[in-house]
Amino acid sequence: MKRVAVLAAAMAVAVPALAEDAEFKPETVGLKETIDPGPNVFVYQQEWKGAGSIAVYGKDDLAFKGLMTSGSMGTMLLAPGGKTAYTQSTYMKRITWGDIEQVLQVFDVATLTPVKEIALPPKAAMTLGYAPMLQQSADGKYVYVQNATPAASVTVVDPVAGTVLQEIPTPGCWGVYPTGEGYAFSMLCGDGSVSRFALGADGKTAEKTGSEKVFDPDADALFVSGVKVSDGWLFPSFGGNLYHVADGAAVPKLVEKFPVAEGVEGGWAPGSYGLAALDAKNGVLFLSMHPEAKEGSHKDLAKEVWAIDLATRKVLSRSPVEELATIAVDGADASVLVGLTEDYRVIRYTVDPKAGYALTKTVENKTTGFSMLATVTP
Predict the structure, then answer these.
(1) Which residue positions does the secretion signal occupy (predicted)?
(2) What is the DSSP pairing of strand 370-376 with strand 284-290?
C-alpha cells in the first residue's frame, strides 16, 4: 500500500509539471488534390466479405500514396499510360446470398477518385485476382471481362462510351490474352488447345478459330498467369516447362516448349499465383519457383525467383525470396521487382543485370486483404 501511495503522489506532482512544460499543438489535417508524382506500384487488395481496394505505393520507396476503393471479389487493370485504372467489382446486397450487382469502375489515378461506373451483366467470374480475368485491347479501346455462370464467356466493354458491346460465348476456354495489335484475344481451353477470338473494329462481332492441341491438361497443365511477348504469350506449366504460343495469325500456334529446371537438383518447379514477370527489353523472364514439386504443389509460394534468359534458355540467377505469391516488374524498366506475400506485405527488390539479374530486397510495406495482383509503372 505504501508503494502505491508513493507512486500516486509522484504522478500528482509529475502530471501538472508536464502540462506546464509541454505546449499543446493540434494536428493539422489536409487533403492533397493529387498523389505525389513519380512511378507507382499498384496492388489489388482483394476482399471476399467486404470492400476491396487498389493500394498505390511509390515505386522508389514503397511510400503509401492512397487507395481506390472497389467492391468484393474483383480485380484491377491499368489503361495504357497508367492514368486510368479499372476494377471489376461485385456488390452483394446480402453478402452470403441474394442479388448481386457487378460493375466496371473507372478511376482517375492522379486523384484516386472514381469517374465512371459501367453496369455489367451479373456474370463476371468471382475468382482470385488473376490478371487474365480483366484485360484490354492493345490500344485500350475495349475492356474484356471473364464471365462464369459457370459457362464461360467474355463481356466486351467500351469504357469511353460506358457501354457493354457484346457477350462472346467461350465454352471450355478460360483466361483472356489480347494480341499485341488489333482487338483479338486468345484463351486456353480444357482440351489443350488455344482458341482465338477476333473482334471487329466496332467491338460488336467476333470470329472464333482454334489451334491444334498445344498442351496436355492432364500431364502438364498451364498456369493462367502468362506473360505477353512480342508475337504472343509465354505460359509456365505445372511440370516446369515454358510454352511459347504465337497469336498473330488467325490460328494460334505453339512455337516452342522448353524446360526451365531440367537437371537442377531439388525437384524445382514453377508455383504461386502471379508467378511470372518479363523484362521485355532484355529478354529476361523472372519466374517464381519452389522445391520438391509434386502433384498439387503448383500454388506453393516462391522460395526463389529465377532469372531466365529467353534467348539462351539459361538460368542467369536464383534469388532466395520470402515466400512470394506474386511478382511484377515494369516491362520498360525492370530495374525493380515487386513481390507480394500472403502475410500482407509488398516487398521491393532491386535487379542487378551485372549479377545475372539477381534480386536484393530494399524495403517493404503493408497490404490488406488477399493481395496477389500487382502492376508496376514507369
Answers:
(1) 1-19
(2) unpaired
Q: Please list the residues that pair with 75 across neighbouring strands.
A: 88
CA distance 201 to 293: 45
Q: Where are the domains of the chain?
A: 260-378
pLDDT at 80 (0 to 100): 93
| Cα end-to-end span (Å), the chain | 66
Q: Is the pTM of the predicted complex or chain greater than 0.85? A: yes
For 35-44, write each residue's pLDDT tens digit: 999 999 999 9
Distance separating alpha carbons of residues 124 and 127, to the nearest angstrom: 9
**Cell numbers for 47:** 476482399
Q: Which residues pair with 209 in a beta bridge?
A: 196
Class of CATH domain 260-378: mainly beta
CA distance 104 to 38: 26
Give the chain's largest Cα–Cα span. Answer: 91
Nearest to 180 by CA among 134, 128, 238, 227: 227
39 close to 59: Cβ distance less than 8 angstroms? yes
Residue 75 to residue 373: CA distance in whole angstroms: 8
DSSP labels, 160-202: TTTEEEEEEE-TTEEEEEE-SSTT-EEEEETTS-EEEEEE-TT
